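Researcher: Re-running this chain for the archive, since the previous output was lost when a drive failed. Same request as before.
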Amino acid sequence: MKPVLIMGCGYVGERVGHRMAHEGRRVIGVARHPERVRELKAMGFEALQADLDTGEGLDVLPLAGCLVLHSVPPPSEGRVDPRTARFAELCRRQPPEKIVYISTTGVYGDQGGAQVDDLTEPSPMTDRGHRRLDAEKRLGQLMAEAGIPVVVLRAPGIYGPFRLPVARIQAG
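Model: Regenerated C-alpha coordinates:
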Protein backbone atom coordinates (compact mmCIF):
# COMPACT_ATOMS: atom_id res chain seq x y z
CA MET A 1 0.00 0.00 0.00
CA LYS A 2 1.14 3.49 -0.78
CA PRO A 3 2.10 5.61 2.23
CA VAL A 4 -0.12 8.56 3.12
CA LEU A 5 1.45 11.96 3.78
CA ILE A 6 -0.83 14.49 5.44
CA MET A 7 0.19 18.10 4.87
CA GLY A 8 -1.36 20.13 7.68
CA CYS A 9 -2.18 17.25 9.98
CA GLY A 10 -4.72 19.05 12.13
CA TYR A 11 -8.27 18.16 13.09
CA VAL A 12 -9.28 16.50 9.81
CA GLY A 13 -5.84 15.13 8.97
CA GLU A 14 -5.59 13.42 12.32
CA ARG A 15 -8.86 11.58 11.74
CA VAL A 16 -7.88 10.56 8.21
CA GLY A 17 -4.49 9.44 9.53
CA HIS A 18 -6.05 7.20 12.17
CA ARG A 19 -8.30 5.58 9.58
CA MET A 20 -5.42 5.03 7.15
CA ALA A 21 -3.18 3.62 9.90
CA HIS A 22 -6.02 1.27 10.91
CA GLU A 23 -6.03 0.02 7.29
CA GLY A 24 -2.32 -0.76 7.63
CA ARG A 25 -0.92 2.21 5.76
CA ARG A 26 2.19 4.09 6.73
CA VAL A 27 1.02 7.57 7.80
CA ILE A 28 3.28 10.62 7.86
CA GLY A 29 1.78 13.69 9.48
CA VAL A 30 3.29 17.08 8.66
CA ALA A 31 2.81 20.04 10.97
CA ARG A 32 4.30 23.50 11.24
CA HIS A 33 4.72 23.70 15.01
CA PRO A 34 7.02 21.45 17.08
CA GLU A 35 4.38 20.87 19.76
CA ARG A 36 1.98 19.50 17.13
CA VAL A 37 4.73 17.23 15.79
CA ARG A 38 5.17 15.86 19.33
CA GLU A 39 1.41 15.29 19.63
CA LEU A 40 1.31 13.40 16.33
CA LYS A 41 4.22 11.20 17.40
CA ALA A 42 2.47 10.49 20.70
CA MET A 43 -0.54 9.28 18.65
CA GLY A 44 1.71 6.82 16.84
CA PHE A 45 2.15 8.69 13.57
CA GLU A 46 5.41 9.37 11.89
CA ALA A 47 5.63 13.14 12.09
CA LEU A 48 7.70 15.78 10.35
CA GLN A 49 7.95 19.51 10.85
CA ALA A 50 7.69 21.72 7.76
CA ASP A 51 6.44 25.20 7.01
CA LEU A 52 4.93 26.21 3.67
CA ASP A 53 5.35 29.89 4.56
CA THR A 54 9.11 29.82 5.16
CA GLY A 55 10.04 26.68 3.23
CA GLU A 56 11.73 25.20 6.31
CA GLY A 57 11.67 21.41 6.42
CA LEU A 58 10.18 20.95 2.96
CA ASP A 59 13.35 19.40 1.55
CA VAL A 60 12.96 16.28 3.74
CA LEU A 61 9.32 15.52 2.93
CA PRO A 62 9.01 12.14 1.20
CA LEU A 63 6.29 13.13 -1.29
CA ALA A 64 7.38 10.91 -4.18
CA GLY A 65 5.05 7.95 -4.50
CA CYS A 66 2.81 8.97 -1.60
CA LEU A 67 -0.87 9.65 -1.49
CA VAL A 68 -1.02 13.21 -0.17
CA LEU A 69 -3.84 14.85 1.74
CA HIS A 70 -3.28 18.60 1.44
CA SER A 71 -5.25 20.19 4.25
CA VAL A 72 -3.09 23.23 4.90
CA PRO A 73 -5.34 26.28 5.04
CA PRO A 74 -4.37 29.33 3.02
CA PRO A 75 -3.10 32.43 4.84
CA SER A 76 -5.76 34.56 6.51
CA GLU A 77 -5.30 37.52 4.16
CA GLY A 78 -5.12 38.19 0.44
CA ARG A 79 -6.81 36.57 -2.54
CA VAL A 80 -4.11 34.04 -3.48
CA ASP A 81 -2.68 31.02 -1.67
CA PRO A 82 1.13 31.15 -1.67
CA ARG A 83 1.25 28.04 0.55
CA THR A 84 -0.35 25.89 -2.13
CA ALA A 85 1.86 27.56 -4.74
CA ARG A 86 4.93 26.42 -2.79
CA PHE A 87 3.42 22.97 -2.27
CA ALA A 88 2.76 22.61 -6.02
CA GLU A 89 6.37 23.51 -6.83
CA LEU A 90 7.54 20.89 -4.35
CA CYS A 91 5.29 18.31 -6.04
CA ARG A 92 6.84 19.10 -9.42
CA ARG A 93 10.22 18.07 -7.99
CA GLN A 94 8.90 15.05 -6.04
CA PRO A 95 5.71 13.87 -7.74
CA PRO A 96 3.28 12.20 -5.37
CA GLU A 97 1.04 9.36 -6.52
CA LYS A 98 -2.12 11.46 -5.97
CA ILE A 99 -3.19 14.64 -4.15
CA VAL A 100 -6.45 15.15 -2.31
CA TYR A 101 -7.08 18.81 -1.46
CA ILE A 102 -9.63 19.93 1.09
CA SER A 103 -11.19 23.13 -0.23
CA THR A 104 -14.47 24.77 0.75
CA THR A 105 -17.96 25.27 -0.59
CA GLY A 106 -17.14 28.96 -0.11
CA VAL A 107 -15.75 28.95 -3.65
CA TYR A 108 -19.38 28.91 -4.87
CA GLY A 109 -20.26 32.18 -3.16
CA ASP A 110 -23.88 33.03 -2.46
CA GLN A 111 -26.04 30.92 -4.72
CA GLY A 112 -29.28 32.30 -3.29
CA GLY A 113 -30.38 28.97 -1.87
CA ALA A 114 -29.91 27.10 -5.16
CA GLN A 115 -28.35 23.67 -5.14
CA VAL A 116 -24.74 23.42 -6.23
CA ASP A 117 -22.78 20.53 -7.68
CA ASP A 118 -19.45 19.98 -9.40
CA LEU A 119 -20.72 21.73 -12.52
CA THR A 120 -21.70 24.92 -10.68
CA GLU A 121 -19.37 27.74 -11.69
CA PRO A 122 -17.35 29.00 -8.70
CA SER A 123 -18.11 32.59 -7.78
CA PRO A 124 -16.42 33.35 -4.47
CA MET A 125 -17.63 36.45 -2.63
CA THR A 126 -14.98 36.54 0.10
CA ASP A 127 -11.22 36.77 0.05
CA ARG A 128 -11.15 33.37 1.79
CA GLY A 129 -13.17 31.87 -1.07
CA HIS A 130 -10.81 33.45 -3.59
CA ARG A 131 -7.79 32.01 -1.75
CA ARG A 132 -9.30 28.50 -1.87
CA LEU A 133 -10.21 28.84 -5.54
CA ASP A 134 -6.65 30.02 -6.25
CA ALA A 135 -5.36 26.86 -4.56
CA GLU A 136 -7.71 24.68 -6.61
CA LYS A 137 -6.53 26.33 -9.83
CA ARG A 138 -2.87 25.89 -8.92
CA LEU A 139 -3.42 22.20 -8.22
CA GLY A 140 -5.41 21.85 -11.44
CA GLN A 141 -2.51 23.38 -13.33
CA LEU A 142 -0.13 20.95 -11.59
CA MET A 143 -2.34 18.05 -12.71
CA ALA A 144 -2.42 19.32 -16.30
CA GLU A 145 1.31 19.96 -16.51
CA ALA A 146 2.78 17.13 -14.43
CA GLY A 147 0.07 14.51 -14.76
CA ILE A 148 -0.36 14.15 -11.00
CA PRO A 149 -3.97 13.18 -10.22
CA VAL A 150 -5.70 15.77 -8.02
CA VAL A 151 -9.01 15.38 -6.23
CA VAL A 152 -10.63 18.51 -4.79
CA LEU A 153 -13.10 18.07 -1.94
CA ARG A 154 -15.23 21.17 -1.39
CA ALA A 155 -16.20 20.68 2.21
CA PRO A 156 -18.68 22.91 4.05
CA GLY A 157 -17.73 24.10 7.55
CA ILE A 158 -15.82 21.45 9.48
CA TYR A 159 -16.95 21.26 13.07
CA GLY A 160 -16.01 19.10 16.01
CA PRO A 161 -15.11 19.41 19.67
CA PHE A 162 -14.11 23.00 20.45
CA ARG A 163 -14.49 23.99 16.78
CA LEU A 164 -18.03 25.35 16.70
CA PRO A 165 -18.29 29.08 16.03
CA VAL A 166 -20.46 29.50 19.14
CA ALA A 167 -19.80 33.23 19.59
CA ARG A 168 -20.63 33.91 15.94
CA ILE A 169 -23.83 31.87 16.18
CA GLN A 170 -24.89 33.65 19.36
CA ALA A 171 -24.20 37.02 17.76
CA GLY A 172 -26.51 36.08 14.88
